[in-house]
Design brief:
Layout lengths: L1 H17 L10 H18 L9 H15 L5 H15 L5 E3 L2 H8 L10 E4 L2 E4 L11 E5 L2 E2 H8 L13 H17 L4 E7 L7 E6 L3 H9 L4 H4 L12 E7 L2 E6 L11 H19 L4 E5 L10 H6 L10 E6 L17 H6 L1 H11 L2 E3 L2 E3 L20 E6 L6 H11 L3 E5 L8 E11 L6 E11 L17 E2 L4 H6 L3 H13 L2
Parallel strand pairs: 9-10, 10-14, 14-15, 15-18
Antiparallel strand pairs: 1-17, 2-3, 4-5, 4-6, 6-7, 8-9, 11-13, 11-17, 12-13, 16-17
Helix pairs in contact: 2-3, 3-4, 6-7, 7-8
Length: 507
Amino acid sequence: MKKATYFPIFMLLVVNLLVAQSIDDSFSQNKMQKDLEIFKKIRLATNSGLYKYRTPREIDSIYKWADHKIKESSTYRDFYNIINQLTDFEGSLHNNTNLPKKINQSLINEESGYFPYPIKFIEGKWIMNYDKGKIPLGAEIISINTTKIEEIIKNTYKYYTTDGINTTGKRIGLLYSFSKYYRLHYGLTDTFTVVYKEYNSDEPKTTLLKSVGNKKYYTHVENRYSKEFDNGIYKDWDKHEKYDFRLINPDSGLLTINTFNIGWHANHVEHKQYVQFLDSIFSIVKRDKITNLIIDVRKNGGGTDPNDLVTYSYLTDRNFSENKEAWISFRKIPFLQYNSDSNVPYLIKLMGVGKFNKEFQKEFPKEMNGKFYQDATSSDHMIRTPKPNAFHGNIYLLTDPNIASAASLFAAMVASNKNTTIIGEETMGGYFGHNGHVPLHYTLPKSKIETGFSVVNLEQDVSKKKNQLHKRGIIPDYTVTQSYKDFLNHNDTQMNFAIDLINQNTQ
């Protein structure tokens, strides 16, 4: 009896030892292949965005690449990078690839091997974003350990997903996690030989940097030079505000919306307060005959309905809906055996799988060619109307790579207006559509890597414009990036450009 009791416990210990404890541990090609097969099956059955930006031939080609890459691979990190490449290739900012908690914690606890300083993209160059280090603030990075910075950046793009083939949004991930991404792709590194140029100098200089630990690097990120600007601190209002309005001059106002996480449904107290704020502000705008309105959503990474939609109803003169078209690729959520309690979406936990599937079937009742579409009875398909005090003057929309998800849907709708001028940088969220709303997460059985994506394929209710491109984010009418001088002085190049443009147009 004792032997029978202890044997399963012994086997459990053996199984646990076979699971990688560090990202650099060896990992068998057989396990990689089995997880890759399951990963592909899940994507084909569940992910409606699989062919949104890629053709079936392109998807087939990258899986052939993955098969070949596995034959050259030997470590857990090798396989993790393959899965990241596949995830990023699809082109959805809601795609993600997460390490198991144990391995992620082992990365956090690493005490050396990381590039020490944060960097930032300014005027087309990757520059030093730390003013207390061995390399001068603002110096342009040319290469690290003989690899050109352009190649390093390209190799680390896969860790931060964006819509379509957008790359500006990936700079946001690199702003905060460049060193982590470098470690994930190149492994732990004891020292870094860095070639750099000081600002306004053509003379390359070389220095040797000693590596730091994960926590030390993120301490440097927390104390990066650009933090004040990155966090969106404006002189006239509290940086912690989710939204704000102020007058720039008697004819012009600034509406700043830093997030759409303002209550997660229409009856939420916070959402109702936001609607009251909007109604009050736009009543004042109409009463005072304000003719120019800057809409600043540059720090807005998204949020929940209906915050984005109700905001747009104050900025349009047309009837509109959230989507022109929306569909999913399944009747019932497939491969639930690879869902664990820790990553099942909240609504599924709340309602249960059966009821959730029924709600999905109700929301997406129309079947065509193996896809399940919304119809006129679907909640997201409802027609919304402009508010009585909606603004019809000149809109100046400020954009940057942070804008994603619900914020990019909102920004795309505003950008679609004939009275809107877009100023700034391309957003990471798409103009014509994205995959969103409902996230699903699956855990691959051998590696325990978690893969997630949103399952609703959306075509946004926007008009076609010559400068807006499929596979890309929202393209500005005026591309304006922060200048090197403004980087040093924490000045807002884009805001100043918008104010100058308003002044020019009203002279």
